[in-house]
């Protein structure tokens, strides 16, 4: 008996937002409020909110709402606005492909659809680096988790991951989980960081480690994982200037749990598939001062663009991207004629946007390469003329720096360079 395959449904929307976390929520609402009548938000999970749903600690919303909220409370502020804003939501939906001409193939509850979009906003967030990414030797026993996976198990599934823990990496999720494990009755032996400084926010060092007498060992890494059925111990050692373990410093630390907080990677498989040019430093797309990538009509924002320190800045950035995407659809504007490069100079790891038009005010986002005190961030054009400077008492790689820049900067096409002096 022959059966004909069901035809693939084709739909059109003005703006399609991929990802229902803090970036996607803010971008979708902003695009709708900017006048786009057909805004579709696509989320692969069954609920909106993304990583915020498992972040039950407070500290969210201090900039966006001027109050301290938990992650779920912060997400709820945006989710409650969706119906009133008129945003169409397609949850439990996976985006299988994205083309450079803004056609998405999505799978929603077993049915395939093709979605043609006037503009696409990439807001897929990021994922954690795993043990395989850093090549820790040893067996593969139970008890080794990424910090986010452990956070999900404890906060959402009510599953305790262990009773005697160590943490490799001092990223913010790892620091927060050191406190969380302690509050749940576990003993956290220590946090080990291969860098000579913490990779997490200073406030989390104080509130999550110092307040609970959890030691932090810098210039130290895990050299071996011991245990076959269940983790029994780890070996740690200090590292030299090239981050190579020093054998004579190696010691054994008994534990039944190891959490990895060793960095985040933007989820950019779809971005690459669409032919978008990428920044090797951020792991995200190259964008201009409207958050548009090199592929016309495709925008990027939030942690899929570059890893942020605060969810508040994710939302602020995504709202801007949503408004620019709406303007692109409504005005059918051509790309800016001028694309002035913005480069990272001495002491700066990366800057965004990577190109500007000179036609509008914009926020320059950057991270420095090392901790400093009493330094100045300086923006100069190709001729050495100073555009902007910002004196700062403290700079740290864990903290994103945001500097407003007035329109006209780079208007002559001369590249801008951002340095720390």
Q: What does this 3D model show about the protein?
A:
The protein is an alpha/beta fold and about 425 residues long. It folds into three domains: about 10-130 and about 265-335, FAD/NAD(P)-binding domain, CATH 3.50.50.60; about 130-260, FAD/NAD(P)-binding domain, CATH 3.50.50; about 340-420, Immunoglobulin-like, CATH 2.60.40. Helix content is about 20%, strand content about 30%. The chain has helices at about 20-35, 70-80, 80-85, 130-135, 145-155, 170-185, 200-210, 270-275, 310-330, and strands spanning about 10-20, 40, 90, 95-100, 105-110, 110-120, 125-130, 145, 165-170, 185-190, 215, 220-225, 235-240, 250-255, 255-260, 265, 300, 340-345, 350, 355, 360-370, 370-380, 385-395, 400-405, 415-420. Helix 1 packs parallel to helix 9 (about 310-330) and helix 5 (about 145-155) packs parallel to helix 6 (about 170-185).
In CATH terms, what is the fold-level topology of the largest domain? FAD/NAD(P)-binding domain
Number of DSSP-assigned strands: 25
Compute the gyration radius: what is it? 23 Å
How would you sum up the major sheet?
7 strands, mixed
- Helices and strands: which structural class? alpha/beta
Unreliable segments (pLDDT under 50, ≥5 consecutive)? none
User: What's the end-to-end separation, in Å?
Assistant: 76 Å
Write down the overall geometry: globular
In CATH, the homologous superfamily of the largest domain goes by the name FAD/NAD(P)-binding domain
**CATH class division of the largest domain:** Alpha Beta
Which CATH architecture of the largest domain would you pick?
A: 3-Layer(bba) Sandwich
Please tally the helical runs, counting DSSP H or I stretches of 4 or more residues: 9
The total domain count is 3
């Amino acid at each position: 008996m022959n059966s004909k395959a069901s035809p693939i449904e084709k739909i059109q929307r003005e703006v399609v937002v991929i990802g229902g976390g803090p970036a996607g929520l803010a971008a979708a609402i902003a695009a709708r409020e900017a006048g786009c009548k057909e805004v579709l938000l696509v989320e692969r999970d069954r609920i909106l909110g993304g990583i915020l749903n498992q972040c039950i600690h407070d500290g969210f919303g201090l900039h966006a709402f001027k109050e301290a909220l938990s992650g779920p409370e912060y997400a709820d502020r945006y989710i409650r606005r969706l119906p009133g804003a008129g945003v169409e939501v397609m949850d439990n939906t996976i985006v299988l492909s994205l083309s450079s001409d803004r056609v998405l193939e999505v799978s929603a509850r077993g049915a395939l659809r093709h979605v043609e979009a006037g503009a696409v906003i990439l807001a897929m967030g990021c994922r954690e680096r795993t043990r395989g990414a850093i090549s820790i030797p040893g067996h593969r026993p139970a008890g080794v988790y990424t910090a986010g996976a452990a956070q999900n198990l404890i906060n959402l599934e009510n599953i305790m991951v262990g009773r005697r823990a160590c943490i490799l990496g001092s990223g913010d999720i790892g620091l927060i989980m050191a406190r969380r494990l302690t509050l749940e009755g576990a003993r956290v032996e220590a946090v080990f960081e291969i860098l000579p400084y913490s990779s997490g926010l200073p406030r989390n060092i104080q509130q999550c480690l110092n307040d609970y007498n959890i030691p932090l060992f810098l210039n130290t890494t895990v050299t071996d994982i011991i245990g076959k059925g269940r983790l029994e111990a780890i070996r740690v050692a200090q590292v030299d200037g090239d981050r190579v373990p020093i054998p004579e410093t190696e010691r054994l630390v008994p534990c039944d749990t190891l959490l990895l907080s060793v960095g985040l990677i933007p989820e950019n498989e779809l971005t690459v598939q669409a032919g978008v040019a990428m920044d090797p430093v951020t792991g995200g797309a190259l964008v201009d001062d409207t958050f548009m990538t090199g592929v016309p009509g495709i925008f990027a924002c939030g942690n899929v663009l570059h890893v942020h320190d605060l969810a508040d800045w994710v939302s602020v950035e995504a709202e801007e991207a949503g408004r620019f995407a709406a303007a692109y659809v409504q005005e059918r504007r051509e790309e800016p004629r001028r694309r002035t490069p913005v480069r990272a100079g001495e002491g700066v790891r990366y800057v965004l946007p990577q190109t500007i038009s000179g036609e509008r005010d914009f926020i320059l986002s950057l991270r420095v390469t090392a901790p400093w005190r009493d330094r100045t961030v300086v923006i100069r054009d190709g001729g050495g003329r100073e555009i902007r400077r910002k004196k700062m008492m403290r700079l740290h790689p864990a903290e994103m720096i945001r500097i407003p820049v007035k329109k006209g900067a780079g208007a002559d096409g001369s590249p801008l360079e951002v340095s720390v002096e």
